[in-house]
Amino acid sequence: MQIDIGIAEADRKAIAEGLSKVLADTFALYLKTHSFHWNVTGPMFNTLHTMFMEQYTELWNALDEIAERIRALGYPAPGSFSQFAALASIKEETAVPKANEMIRQLVEGHEAVARTARAVFPTAEKADDQPTADLLTQRLQIHEKTAWMLRSLLE
Q1: Which GO terms label this protein's molecular function in UniProt (predicted)?
Q2: Domain, as residue range, for 115
Q3: pLDDT score of 155
Q4: Residue 13, number of CB atoms within 10 A of its CB
Q5: Domain assignment present for 20
Q6: Is residue 92 in a domain?
Q7: Within-domain flag for 38
């Protein structure tokens, strides 16, 4: 059935492609945050273990919102490791860094997702896609605030 939500197909496609990158970055950051939750050690263990759990839980829930918006626009959401790896700007961490390095990488990760989300915003605005703009605004607020909070731990 044809989609007629008031957004041209070419715009829906461009927005879905941008959101697919946001989804991939969010998934990459989710995996990194969850891994750091499992593997953090040191004097800040309890604080970071709990903080990372709150962060990966928020990221996990965001994945569904982003993927469902892609679907509402009429396109399939990427869902494989290879698709995410090709689309994500966040590099995986295969080692177990020290706690401060974990924090630094997570700051960089949240900033990367913010940049990826911000890049989709003009396309969504031009197409009068308010639901996507709202989703992006919410994601930007969360990632910028989380990056600030994590960055504060390094000072």
Answers
A1: ferric iron binding; oxidoreductase activity, acting on metal ions
A2: 9-153
A3: 87
A4: 14
A5: yes
A6: yes
A7: yes
**Are 48 and 40 a contacting pair, CB within 8 Å?**
yes
Q: For the chain (length 155 residues), average pLDDT per consecutive 10? A: 94 98 98 98 96 98 98 98 97 96 98 98 97 98 98 94
The number of distinct structural domains making up the chain is 1
Q: Say which residue the tokens 């930007």 belong to.
A: 140
118 part of a folded domain: yes
Does the pTM surpass 0.90? The reply is yes
CA 13 to CA 23: how far, in whole Å? 15
Residue 121's pLDDT is 96
Comparing CA positions, the residue from 88, 56, 89, 72 lying closest to residue 4 is 72
CA distances (Å), 142 to each of 48, 49, 62, 114, in order?
18, 19, 10, 9
For position 149, which CATH number holds? Answer: 1.20.1260.10
